[in-house]
Amino acid sequence: MKKRNIVVSIICAVLCCAGVTVIFQRYQSWTNQAFDKLAAQNIKAYSDSQNVEVTARVENVRTTLKTIAEMVQQREESGGGTQDLKDYFNAVSKNEDIQAEGVRYYRFDSIDTSVMSENDLKMIEQLKKGESVVSDIFPSENENGTALYYGIAEPIFVDGKAEGFIRGLISSDTLLYSSQTGFMRTDTESFLMYEDGTNAFTENLSEERGPYVNMYDSLENIGGSPDQVRELKENIKEKKQKVMIFMKGKEPVYVSYSFLPYNGWIILNVFYSADMNEYVVTLEDNGKKMTALLIGLAAVILLLVAGIVYHSNKEHRFERKRTALLANFSDTILCEYDRRRDTLKCTSNISRLLAVEQTVITEFKKYIFDSGLVYSGDHQVLDKILAGHPKEGETAQYEVRLKTKDGTYIWCRLDIITIGAKRERRLVIKVTDISGEKKKEMALVRKAERDNLSGLLNRGAFKEQVQEYIQQSQGGCLFLIDLDNFKDINDKYGHLAGDESIRKVGEVLKTCFRAKDIIGRYGGDEFFAFVPGRMTRDVIDGRAADVVHKVAAITLDEAPDLHFTCSVGIVRCGEGSTFKDCLKRADEAMYKAKDRGKNSWFVQ
């Protein structure tokens, strides 16, 4: 009997050890998968943000060149010539905010097409058709030697016919630059390639290509298997984004990519995490030693101890994974929310950024509403997070405004992943301050909507906002303002005086209209403003008179004898109107004001 008990005890101990081992391995697999998902999500967000930043940078240059093209067009059509614009082009080229070098005006009739490549001839044909062009990368000489550039060109039409184009050179480094910092950013390589894997920086160079110019071949050298590289090719061909994980020895290598809307360019990012991998391996080794000790104890006290071993290992694995995540996200706040106990535990750095003094918050739902930690307008988002029932391993991302120590609110991104069994389900939350990204995003949007010379809305942004008012049946009055005899200013005093005139008119119009009114520059010497809501005739006349009088009061230091006047056409835009129709009627009203002797207004 005693022998039998010993055998049974041994069998139970073996089964217990085997069970604990299986459970331990399974839990390790789950936590590793959860970590990989969170890392992939972070890397994809980096690639997407990099793509948006690069695209915005290109569009900023294109907007600037379009504005210059309109100015050159006006000079050509008015017969003013462009010989004196060289200094202006040089000034634009040296402007660091624009990032376009070598800005020049080329006429089609002065270009020798016989020495051009097939690609160059194709771009010339596109420009003649009125299309914007972004060229491939090519080498060019600068003051420091030879560097790689790509060109952006905008066509110029004179009297309805394509006569030439404005071209600027942009350093090819800007196609891969990103201002982002933080998790897995320091050990990252970025490449620009085409769909077939060709490196865009060497495709058009005359020198002999190196052995690893094709990026797909290079990926096999850093751990990508032929099947993984084949899958990557298929994903890129189908324009499907996916973060892939290669194994370079025992070290994971993360590969992400995004598609630029120019020339079929693809940004390929390779992230290395050797230091992190060594740290995780060390923790795994320590975890195995602890597990062996617990299994030994479980063999002594059999099934009772087996339950304790499993519980202790589960808690240990959770703490290990949390420590690993903290090592990766040291520049962020990491929190763990226990749904059953309604308790939030956070890393100690939370008090440096947010209006939270303690790292453990009990009765978290009540605390949120009592403390005002979350902006009231975002409570609905928080309710969705806390009331949801996600499955284990499921991830989500939200953006909310959180209160800082000084009482202000900043935008934060919450990356959430669910871990643990059903009854012990917890949310691991990464809190990242994205207020800087939000500010840059809004700054880029505002810059793209503005006319560089006057500081007012450009034609496209003005049209979009006015159309929205009209479609909402709010209506209003459209003012079309044209400077009288503006061509004489450019001819007599030069284009710099003309530019200063446009700038001062923009400042004057801001004082003539309210902050909620929409003011923009139509182009050349024409401006427009839209006043939402109903206006009586007396109010309209008063506003128009204010515009005429304040424009007449403008003076220029370089032209003290210059007197400004303007003609204003005004129409009411009611329900059922279109922006095009309102603009046409306002133009007719403006010309009637000119027929009455200029320096006046006419209400249609």
TrEMBL record:
Keyword Transcription: no
Molecular function as annotated in GO: diguanylate cyclase activity
Pfam families in the cross-refs: GGDEF (PF00990)
The keyword ATP-binding appears for this protein: no
Residue ranges occupied by any PAC domain in the UniProt entry: 396-446
Domain GGDEF: 474-604
Membrane-spanning parts: 6-24, 254-272, 292-312
SUPFAM superfamilies: Nucleotide cyclase (SSF55073), PYP-like sensor domain (PAS domain) (SSF55785)
Domain of life: Bacteria
Keyword set, alphabetical order: Membrane, Transmembrane, Transmembrane helix
Protein name: Diguanylate cyclase (GGDEF) domain protein
Species of the source: [Clostridium] hylemonae DSM 15053
